Amino acid sequence: MIVLALALAASPPVILAVGKERREPLTSPTVGTLRWVPSGRLHMGGPLPHGWGAPRSTATVTKGYWVMESEVTQAMWRTVTGSNPAHYAGEASRPVEMVSWCDAVWFANALSTGEGLEPAYHLPPGFGPGMPAAACNVSAPAVTWNQSAGGYRLPIEAEWEWAARGGQEHRYSGSDDVAAVARFRADLSFEWKPRTEPARGLAPNAFGLHDLSGNVWEWCWTAYEGDPEGPPQAEADRGRVVRGGAAEQLPQHIEVTARAAAVAGNTDDFVGFRLVRSAP
Questions:
Q1: Radius of gyration in angstroms for the set of CA atoms belonging to the chain, rounded to a whole number
Q2: Which pick of 140, 174, 186, 203 has the fewest CB atoms within 10 Å?
Q3: Residue 101: how many other CB atoms lie within 10 Å
């Protein structure tokens, strides 16, 4: 199991400001609609139970950006790569999983190139999909992010939580009613059978984004012990942040502030990703 720690908020962070800039959604022939998320300011973290919490910090997202409506699905992954690594295969609209942080970064660049956009990442030689875990862990610190590029990329952690919040103070992304917006495990019954569910099957949040609570954890660019507002380059040997919780977990494990770490080269059947694009 790749999850090293969970951070579960006792109460929602406070939304301090929501930017007023507005842009139209973007449409990709491969990954569908990307919704506009304005700039903003919020409290992240806070006092958390079980000793897993991080100190509360104030995060500022200085520029708006576009975010995929859902996680990258198996159909989207197959369109770019010709393969499907997912454990819960069968419905192409389910999120792709069993993908490492390196796979997600490579996919972002491949998608950008295919759509004529400047790739966001500079990748070291030999970097590609399906890399062995050890090779990914060695190569990941050498990946650098060109912040002026307009191509697809992973969100930094502050961007992920800001998008998930939707400018509101719900317990889950889009609602205090977990069943309205999230795929989750209702109880600890042995009869429960783990699986992911098709994307966009439940209500979106106020920014028009689906599935930011539950279904699959989502990779972020940020190192687990790094600054949630950066840094431009992920730190080495700290693990990468995954956010949002998964369908295998109870409701208290998929709150908007749920946070975990995963080693960059590891894969898991409940870890996927979604991509964002920076505004010029």
A1: 17
A2: 186
A3: 28
Question: Which residue carries 């208290």 as its tokens?
Answer: 252
At residue 82, the 3 state secondary structure works out as coil
pTM: 0.89
3-class secondary-structure state, position 61: strand
Looking at residue 261, what is its pLDDT?
87
| 69-123: pLDDT as tens digits | 999 999 999 999 999 999 999 899 999 999 999 999 999 999 999 999 999 999 9
DSSP string, 164-229: HHTTS--SBTTBS-HHHH-B------TT-------TT-S---TTS---SSBSSEEEEEEETTS-TT
* CA–CA dist 153, 65 (Å, integer): 11
pLDDT in tens, 201-231: 999 999 999 999 999 999 999 988 755 665 4
Q: Are strands 32-37 and 26-28 parallel, antiparallel or unpaired?
A: antiparallel
Rounded Cα distance, 278 and 280, in Å: 6
Written as one letter, the residue type at 35 is R
